[in-house]
Amino acid sequence: MPGLGSAALVVAFGLVAYAAVAGGYAAHRGRRRLLESATNALFASFASVLLAALVLLAALARHDFSFAYVASHTSRELPLGYTLASFWSGQEGSLLLWLLVLTGIGSAAVALNRRLIRTVIPWTVPILGAIASFFALLLVFVASPFATQVAPADGAGMNPSLQNPYMLAHPPLLYLGYVGLTIPFAFAMGALASGRADERWIIATRRWTLASWTFLGFAILLGAKWAYEEVGWGGWYAWDPVENAALMPWLVATAYLHSVMVQEKKNMLRVWNAVLVAGAFCLSLFGTFLTRSGVINSIHSFTQSSIGAWFLGFIAVVAAASTALIIYRLPLLRSRTRLESLVSREAAFLYNNLFLVAFALTVLWGVIYPLVSEAVRGVAVTVGAPYYDFFAVAFGLPLVLLMGIGPLVAWRRASLRAVGRSLLWPAGAALIVGILLLLAGAGSSPAGLVGYTFAAFVLAAIALEFVRGTRARHALGGGSWPAAFTSLVGRNRRRYGGYVVHAAIVLLLVGAVGIGGFGTTQEGKLTQGQSVEVGDYTLTYLGSEQRRAANSQELRARLAVSRGGEDLGTVLAGKNRYFAEQQTSNEVAIRSDWLRAEDLFVIADQFNPDGSVFVKVIVNPLVNLIWLAGLLFVAGALITLWPDAREQRRLARRFDEEGALARA
Amino acid sequence: MDVLAVALGALLAVAAVAFVARPFLAEPDAEDDRLAGRTSAEQERLELLERRDRALGALKELEFDHRTGKIADADYEASVGPLRREAAEAMRALEPLAPPARAPVEKVDARA
What we know:
The complex is a heterodimer. By secondary structure, chain A is of the alpha+beta class. Helix content of chain A is about 65%, strand content about 10%. Chain A starts with a helix and ends with a helix. The mean pLDDT of chain A is about 90. Chain B has a domain at about 40-100. Chain B has 3 helices and no strands. At the A-B interface, helix 1, helix 2, helix 10, helix 16 and helix 17 of A face helix 1, helix 2 and helix 3 of B.
C-alpha cells in the first residue's frame, strides 16, 4: 500500500513543519497553548513516520516489487533478515530511518525534560521540528521510498557487501549515534535562543549525549568488524571517507563529553561547549551526506544520488545559524571563571580537547581534500593512509598519555611535585613493560614499542585510581573490600565508568598496534597438496569445492592448518557469485585464536583453470583485542549511563527549591 | 493511490489535526495563555543554586581525592579555603531570595 506510506509521510511533513513554525512563533511570543500544540505535533509526527516505516517493512517482507525501493534493493531469494535490513540499505530507506529515529528520540527527550527545563523547551521544539522538516521534505519531494512501478518478476537484489550479519546492527546503531547528536544540539541552541545558558540543558541532555556517543562508537567498531570480514583486505580500519565520516563526530563528541565536565565543575568553556555541540551535529549531518551523496568515492558508499546539494545546503544553514546564535549570545556565555593553573584537571581536559578537535579537523581535511583539489586543480587527489596514520600517531599518543595523567591531577591546581609523585607508579610500570617488551623482541616496531609502553602507563594509572579509591572507601565505610569497590564505583559512576572506557581505548590501541606493527603476510599460488608457511602456521591446499547457497553459488579453497606440528583443522576461503545481483564477493576465512588474541586470515580470490589457487595469508596478532575493546567500551558507557540516585536527589532538591520560589 | 489508502491517509490526517488542536479544544478560553517564563530574580536564584552545588560538589571531590592521597596536603590547603568561601558566599546570597517553604541546604558529605 504505497499510497498509505506516502500519505503518512505527507502528514508527518505537515506536523514537523507546524512544530517548527508554530513552535517558533509560540516561543517568540510566549504562547502556552500554541507551544503545547506544536509539541503535540512533534509527538504525532513520530506516530505518522512509524506508520510509514511499517508500510515499507511490510512491503519488504511481502516482496512487493511494485515499490521501486523494494525492487531495487531485494530479491525473492534474499534471506528474510537481509530483506528487512534493506530498509536501511538504500538512500530513501535510510532517510526514513533518520526521520523515524529523530522524531522518536526528539519526542522522548522533550517529554522527559518538560519539567526540568521549562524555559528551554519552547525553543527546543521548533528546532527539532525544523531539522525533522528537512528530512521529511526530502522524503516527500526528493527521495520517496514509496515510488511505484509496474512490478518486475524479481528484484535487483542487495549489494553482496551488505549481505553480512553486521548489516543488521551497524547501520541502525550508526544512525542512533548520528541522530542522537541532534538532541544536545537542539537543547543547546534552545537554551541560547531562550537566553538561558545555565547548566540545565547540559543536565537534561547528558545521558542522551552519552548514549548517542556510545552508539556511534560501538557502531564504528561494528563497521570495522564488518569491513574486516567482508571487504577482506586483512586490516580493520582503512581511513575510508565513510569510516571517517562516523569518526569525526565521535571525536568531537568525545571532546565535548570531557569539556562539559569543566563547565559543570568550574563554569568554564561555555562558548567552547556550544561550539562543540554544534560541530558534532554538523559533522553527523556531513557523515550522512558522505554516505548518501556518493560525492566521495568509497567502498562503503552504496549510492550515487542527487540529494548531495540538499544536504550541503542544509549543513551550511545549520552551521551559519548556530554560529550566529553563539555569537549573538557571547555576552551570556562568557565565563567569569579563569583557568587557575596549567597543571590542573581542567587544563588536562583542555589539552585533551585540543588534540581531539585537531585530529577531527585533520581527518575532515583528508576527507574533503579530493573535492578541494578537484575544484582547484581539476584533478581529484585522494589522501592516503600515511597521512591519517601520521596524525593518528601525532595526536593519538599525547591523548593516550593524557588519559593516564589527567585522572591523577587535581582540579583547580596541583603542584608538580604532587603530580610527579602520583605518576611514579604508572611511569615505573610503563618502564618495566617497555624493557620486557624490548627483551622479547618487540623493538622490531619502534612505534609498537612506544604504543605498548604508553598503554601500560595508562592501564597502571587506571588501576592505581581504582586501588586508591577502594582503599579510601574501605577506610571510610568499613565492610568488605568488594563492597568498598562497588560503593566506590556506585558513588561516582561517571568517573569510574569513564576509566573503564579509557581501558577499552587502551585495549583497542594494543590491538591496533599489534595488527599494524607485528603482523605477518605471505602470498602465492598453490597447487593441490602444496603448502605455505606464515609465522608459525602451515597451510596446505587440499582442493576447491562448490556449493549452492540460498541466493549465490559459493566457490571455496579448502586449506588444512597446522601450527608447530599440531593439526588445527581446515579453513575455507573463496568467493560467492550472487545470482540476482550478478556480482561476486570475496569471502575470507578467519580462524580466531582467542587465547593468543590473534587471527589467521586467508584470502583466496583467484581460482585458476589448472586447479591452482592464489592465496594471501595474514597472521593478525592481538586483533581480537580490538573487538573485546568494543565490549569493554559498552560496559564502561553503561556504568556511566546508569542512573545515579544520589545525583537525582540532589538535582530534584535544587529544582524543588527553584520551583518553590516560582510558586511563592 | 487506492481508495483504502486515501481513506486511511485522511483518517491519519484528521487524528493528527485533532491531537495537535487538543490544547485549544481543552481550553478554548484559557485565562492565562502565557508561557511560564523565569523572572530575573528566579534566574539569579538558579545561578546561585548552581554555584552553591558546584562548590559543594568540588569540596566533596577534593576531600575524597585528599583521602586517596591524590592531592598533597599543601594543594588541599590551598584549594579548600576558596571553595568553602565560594559555597558560603552562594548560601549567604541565597538567604534573602529564599522562598517560604525552602528545602534544607545540602551538607558536605566527606564520605561521598
